[in-house]
Amino acid sequence: MTTSAPTGTAPAARTGSPVVDRIASIELSSVVLPLRAAISDAKVFTGRQRAMTEVVFLFAEVRTEAGLEGVGFGYSKRAGGPAQFAHAREVAADLIGEDPNDIGRLWTKLVWAGASVGRSGASTQALAALDVALWDLKAKRAGLPLAKLLGAHRDSVRCYNTSGGFLHEPLEQVLVNADRTLAEGVGGIKIKVGQPDTREDLRRVRAVREHVGDDVPLMVDANQQWDRPTAQRVGRALEEFGLVWIEEPLDAHDTEGHAQLARSLDTAIATGEMLTSVREHDDLIRAGAADVLQPDAPRIGGITQFLKLAVLAEHAHLQLAPHFAMEIHAHLAAAYPIEPWVEHFDWLHPLFDERLEVRGGRMHLSERPGLGVTISEQARAWTVDRVRVDAPR
């Protein structure tokens, strides 16, 4: 049944508990994170979206009869947060009484619980927070960081920053942001492009490249706002800047167009963040439409689905650069065989008591078990809806 969540804190996780355990309760929270400034990328400049002022998070806290707890989260931007919360609230009861170790089976069970609304989009994104919480719990039971549970290939990952390169900030501020980012130990810089005037895009890219020098990894992101001829023309013009990649030059679902660009340009093509299933990414991979795949675990349904996708990506010898949610993706990238990138965003800092260590151009994993994060009191204060799901009495 679903009741109001109690006050107080959950019991601390304990290792060495019996192997067989059962899920006793799940607490779901909808948390609205306010941004310091209204954020604009190319979708705002072309009139397709409004500026972003907040991000809505869905947190799941799964507790077992033995007193273990796992924490997971997903998110939505501009719209969809209430839908994710409502769907998770409907299906979460199907986990009560289950063994939390059986994560793959439980993901399938939750998908079938909401099968009438499909297997991608908001319905499976709502499952991501639950799925991540189960993986966090499993790693905590083992007393291991999640990356170590999965089988880490490295204890740090290359990272680049996006949050300082948005289009709402003038070029002079973007240059200041780049200096600060590099001084803080982040390895690469990504800036937004895709404005209606492509000459302005090229002016900004040239200025940033000249400012940071040729040795700093530099990426650009058009946020799907070019058509095919523009992407081809601007892509050629961008070749001189030695970019690591051009991100989302076309509509996220234009697989054929991305494949044409990947074949014709020397600069790598990166895409995938807006896709919401493994199947959609598989279409990209089969078409040769990405040199760098950018899956987002919360958007494709959680860690269980991400691991399936990572196998496909490795088989195709692709680079991996997971989108956003670095608290999750640092672990998943560390377990990917081919040297990956992770996107550094400081937006989520207020939500957690811990920080990922960044130095020498890399994001370093902690030795804390699980994801290594706990929900902050500030996140609790930003909670706008909360329910507890437990066994009927």
Write the layout of secondary structure elements.
Blueprint: E1 2-3, E2 23-39, H1 42-45, E3 52-64, E4 69-77, H2 81-91, H3 103-113, H4 122-142, H5 146-150, E5 156-161, H6 171-183, E6 188-192, H7 198-212, E7 218-221, H8 228-238, E8 245-247, H9 255-264, E9 268-271, H10 278-287, E10 292-293, H11 297-300, H12 303-315, E11 319-320, H13 326-334, E12 341-344, E13 357-359, E14 362-364, H14 377-381, E15 383-390
Parallel strand pairs: 5-6, 5-12, 6-7, 7-8, 8-9, 9-10, 10-11
Antiparallel strand pairs: 1-15, 2-3, 2-15, 3-4, 5-14, 13-14
Helix pairs in contact: 2-4, 3-4, 6-7, 10-12
Account of the protein in words:
Strands 5, 6, 7, 8, 9, 10, 11, 12, 13 and 14 form a 10-stranded mixed β-sheet that branches. Strands 1-15-2-3-4 form a 5-stranded antiparallel β-sheet. Helix 10 (278-287) links the parallel strand 9 (268-271) and strand 10 (292-293). The longest helix has 21 residues, at 122-142. It contains 14 helices and 15 strands. The radius of gyration is 21 Å and the shape is globular. The N and C termini lie close together (9 Å). With 393 residues, it is an alpha/beta fold. The model is unreliable at 1-17 (pLDDT under 50).
